[in-house]
Amino acid sequence: MSIEIKYFASLRDRLGRAGDRLEAIDGLTVAGVWATLWPDAPLPPNTLAAVNLDYAGLEQPVADGDEVAFFPPVTGG
Amino acid sequence: MNIELRTAPFEPLAELARYQAGLDNHQRGQYGAAAIFIGTMRDANDGEWVRGMTLEHYPGMTERQLQRIVESAFQQWPLLDALVMHRVGALQPNDPIVLIAVWAERRATAFAACRFLIEELKSTAPFWKREDTAAGPHWVEHNTPG
Question: Is A77 within 8 Å of B124 when comparing Cβ atoms?
């Protein structure tokens, strides 16, 4: 198992890929996932996050098998 | 209650007629008000002509978030039924984007719940618009005020 990360819309275009995989470590949070994958790029302002298909705060814990998503403000409707 | 994502153009009024016919099978005489919102793609935005649009979503989370929004409306108001239909994929100007319909005993309830559903959808459901303009494609950064 590992953590599956997904990026959407303008964030995916900016990063140049639709997702990543990361090995879980103890004490990992949503913010920690981003910082591990993008050590040189701070999370863009207004970026939203989800864990297992529900909105999540940056300090929410992330565990093995979770799906984490990062995306820009939504613009549907 | 029905929540649906559509990958091809749809006719909101035909969908509404079909859904209400089904509703009338078991709730005939119960509702006194239906409030309906239909959102349609415009051919201009922020002073630019828009030739087409792509609506991206987050499969799994989008459906789940729409379900949460509808459940929240049912918790807040005594609703009889609700219908939410939203397009994804490639759209052209004048294509319907979203249909929301709410049935209730009274109009105040129906109006309030319908307004709540579209505003919550616009601010929390994971959809993203990419517009195709003369200057090239670009992502819409924020929604227009209600």
Answer: no
